[in-house]
Write a structure and sequence with these properties.
globular, alpha/beta, 8-stranded mixed β-sheet, TIM Barrel, 16 helices, 24% helix
C-alpha cells in the first residue's frame, strides 16, 4: 500500500490562481498529490517539515535538445533534476539527422530509465533543408506510428519555413498528421513577420523559441503562438525579451534552454537561472514560476504536471528564497531525489547499442582540399554576433597570396570547411568567418567538431590548412567529438562516440571535459567575447538561421534560401 505523506510548513506556489498559499499542507499518496488541506488537519503516515521555505512545482523546460548537452538522456536526467527540473520537452532531431528512426528509438528507450520525465517532439525536418547532406531522412510515413508512443507529445520545430509557405507535400503531410492527433507543433522562424508569419501560424505551428527581439515576440503572441524564451549556452535571448512580458501576455510565455552545456548548467543553473533573471528584471515571482511550470504544461497538454494541485504528480522544487531560487530539495513522483545539489536517486543507465557508435565516415581529405583559390579579392564573409545564432553577411576586400586566400594576410579572418561525414559522398565546402577571434588576432591553429546543427557533418575552422587537416583526422580517430590543434599539436579533445554527438560518460565527467576543452581553446587562441568555441562553431552549418551559413554543399544565403558564391 502506498504511503501517505504530508508536506507542511511551506509557502506554496499556486500557479493555477497566481497566488501564494500559507497555512496549507500538501497531502501526497504514492506518486500523486491527493489534496491541499488546512495545516494540521489531516493525519498521515509521514510528515515532512519544509521549514518555511517555498514549495514550487518542479520546473518544465519547454524546448531542449538533449544531444546538445553531449549527454545521453539518462545522464542528462541526473544533471538537471538536482536543479529542480522535473520534465523536459525534448526534440531529438540532432540524432535523427545522423541515424533516423534508429536514433529516435535509442533516445526513447534510454529515457525510460531516467528519473526525469522526458517527453519528445518528433523531428519535423530531417534534414532541415535539401541544401545539406544528413545521415538520414524522415518522411511523414516514418513518423506516423510514433504518435502512439506514450512519451511523444507532438511535432518538433518546423525549421523549413519556406517549405511550409510553399506547401511542400511531405511537410504539409507531417503538419496534417500532428493536427489529426490533436498534438502541438513547435516552430522555428527567426525574423519571420507579417503575412508570412500568419500563414506559418495558420498551418498549425503553435510556438517559437527563436525570438531575439521584442517585436518578434509580440507579433507571435498576437498570432496566438506561445513564445519559448530561450537562455542557452550559445543563444541568450532572455534578457532582451523579458521587458515585453506582462501580466496580460505571460500565459503565452514559457522558459526553455534549447542547447545548453553541462558546464553552464552546473555554474549557472538550469531553469532556476531563468527565474533569477526574470525576477531581477522586475517580473512578479509567481508569474515567473508560472512561466517555468504551468504554462508549458498547458501548452503541451501535460495535465498531470506543472502545478501543486490534487490529481497531479508530486513533483516539487523547494527553494529558500524568491530572488536567487536556490534549489534545496527536489521530489519527483513523491520521492526525494535531490538534496542541496546532491543526487539521491540516480537514473538507470542502460548499455549503449553498438549501432549508434562508429558513425563518422567522411572522405579522406588532403591538404590541397583546404586551398581557396580566388579570382577576386572581394568576398562574402560569415560575420558572427556575440551570444547569437544569427550571423551577418559581410562583403569585404581581402588580401591574396599567389591567387590563394591566406588567413595570415587577413588577421581576424578564418577559413571554415564543412565535410560530409555520413555517406562518404565527397561533399566539402569552404568559406570565411569573421568574429570567432578577437579583432586582428591570428590563430595558428584549428578547431573542429562533429556536432554541427542539424546535419552534423564535420565543421572545422582555422587559419592554416595543415592544422585544419589534423583536426579532421583526429575526429575520425575519435569517431566523433571536438578537437583543437595549435601549431601542429593536438591541444584538446572531447570524444563523443554516440552518433558523434554524445558521450557515454556521466554528467560530471563530460562537464569537466567540456570545461577543460573550452579552457584549452581560450588559452591557445584569442577567442572573441560572447563566442563559445565549440557551440558557436556548431551552428555555422545551420541553414535555417539567418543570414549567411555554410553546409557541405556550399555557402548558403538563408534570406534567399539559396546557395551563394564566396566571391562577391
Amino acid at each position: 500500500m502506498s504511503q501517505t505523506i504530508c508536506f507542511t510548513n511551506a509557502t506554496i506556489a499556486d500557479v493555477i490562481t497566481g497566488r501564494w498559499l500559507n497555512d496549507t499542507d500538501v497531502i501526497v499518496k504514492g506518486d500523486t498529490i491527493e489534496a491541499l488541506v488546512p495545516q494540521g488537519t489531516v493525519k498521515t503516515d509521514r510528515i515532512i517539515d519544509l521549514n518555511g521555505q517555498f514549495l514550487l512545482p518542479a520546473f518544465i523546460d519547454a524546448h531542449v535538445h538533449i544531444e546538445s548537452s553531449q549527454l545521453t538522456p539518462s545522464h542528462f536526467s541526473d544533471l538537471v533534476i538536482v536543479h529542480g527540473t522535473g520534465c523536459v520537452i525534448a526534440d531529438p532531431h540532432e540524432i535523427a539527422n545522423v541515424l533516423g528512426t534508429k536514433g529516435l528509438d535509442f533516445m526513447i528507450e534510454n529515457a525510460r530509465g531516467a528519473a526525469l520525465d522526458i517527453r519528445f517532439m518528433l523531428p519535423s525536418c530531417v534534414p532541415a533543408t535539401p541544401f545539406e547532406t544528413a545521415g538520414a531522412q524522415l518522411l511523414a510515413k516514418d513518423l506516423q506510428d510514433y504518435f502512439a508512443v506514450d512519451c511523444v507529445l507532438g511535432l518538433g520545430e518546423v525549421m523549413n519555413v519556406p517549405g511550409v509557405l510553399r506547401k511542400d507535400p511531405d511537410l504539409i503531410a507531417k503538419l496534417a498528421l500532428a493536427r489529426a492527433h490533436d498534438r502541438p507543433i513547435d516552430g522555428h522562424a527567426p525574423l519571420l513577420s507579417g503575412q508570412a508569419l500568419k500563414a506559418y501560424a495558420t498551418a498549425g505551428v503553435s510556438s517559437d523559441h527563436e525570438c531575439s527581439t521584442i517585436e518578434e515576440m509580440l507579433e507571435r503572441i498576437d498570432c496566438g503562438m506561445t513564445v519559448l524564451l530561450r537562455q542557452g549556452s550559445a543563444a541568450k535571448n532572455l534578457a532582451q525579451l523579458l521587458p515585453a512580458v506582462t501580466q496580460a501576455n505571460a500565459a503565452f510565455c514559457s522558459f526553455c534552454c534549447d542547447d545548453t552545456h553541462p558546464d553552464d548548467i552546473v555554474r549557472e543553473g538550469h531553469l532556476e537561472k531563468h527565474l533569477r533573471m526574470a525576477v531581477a528584471a522586475g517580473l512578479d515571482p509567481i508569474t515567473a514560476v508560472q512561466m517555468a511550470t504551468i504554462n508549458a504544461a498547458r501548452h503541451y497538454g501535460l495535465t498531470h504536471l506543472g502545478a501543486i494541485e490534487a490529481g497531479r504528480k508530486a513533483n516539487f522544487a523547494l527553494v529558500d528564497n524568491l530572488k536567487d531560487f536556490n534549489v534545496c530539495d527536489v521530489f519527483l513522483n513523491g520521492v526525494h531525489v535531490a538534496h542541496r545539489g546532491r543526487l539521491l536517486h540516480p537514473s538507470s543507465h542502460p548499455m549503449l547499442p553498438k549501432h549508434i557508435t562508429h558513425t563518422v565516415n567522411p572522405i579522406n581529405v588532403a591538404l590541397s582540399d583546404f586551398q581557396m583559390p580566388l579570382a577576386s579579392n572581394k568576398l562574402r564573409i560569415i560575420g558572427l554576433l556575440p551570444n547569437e545564432l544569427l550571423t551577418e553577411t559581410l562583403i569585404e576586400d581581402v588580401l591574396c597570396l599567389n591567387g590563394l586566400f591566406q588567413c595570415n594576410e587577413n588577421p581576424g579572418l578564418l577559413k571554415i570547411a564543412v565535410i560530409e561525414r555520413h555517406h562518404a559522398t565527397g561533399n566539402m565546402a569552404l568559406g570565411v568567418v569573421k568574429g570567432y577571434l578577437k579583432e586582428g588576432a591570428l590563430m595558428q591553429g584549428a578547431v573542429a567538431t562533429t556536432v554541427a546543427h542539424d546535419s552534423h557533418n564535420i565543421v572545422v575552422i582555422g587559419d592554416n590548412d595543415s592544422d585544419m587537416l589534423k583536426a579532421v583526422e583526429t575526429l575520425k580517430t575519435l569517431q566523433g567529438g571536438q578537437c583543437a590543434v595549435n601549431k601542429g599539436e593536438v591541444v584538446a579533445t572531447l570524444a563523443l562516440p554516440v552518433a558523434g554527438l554524445m558521450s557515454d560518460k556521466d554528467a560530471e565527467s563530460v562537464r569537466l571535459e567540456q570545461h577543460n576543452f573550452e579552457k584549452a581553446v581560450h588559452e591557445h587562441f584569442d577567442i572573441a567575447d560572447g563566442v563559445n568555441a565549440a557551440m558557436t562553431l556548431a551552428f555555422l552549418a545551420l541553414p535555417v538561421i539567418p543570414h549567411l551559413k555554410i553546409t557541405d554543399q556550399g555557402l548558403f544565403d538563408v534570406d534567399k534560401f539559396a546557395f551563394t558564391a564566396l566571391e562577391a
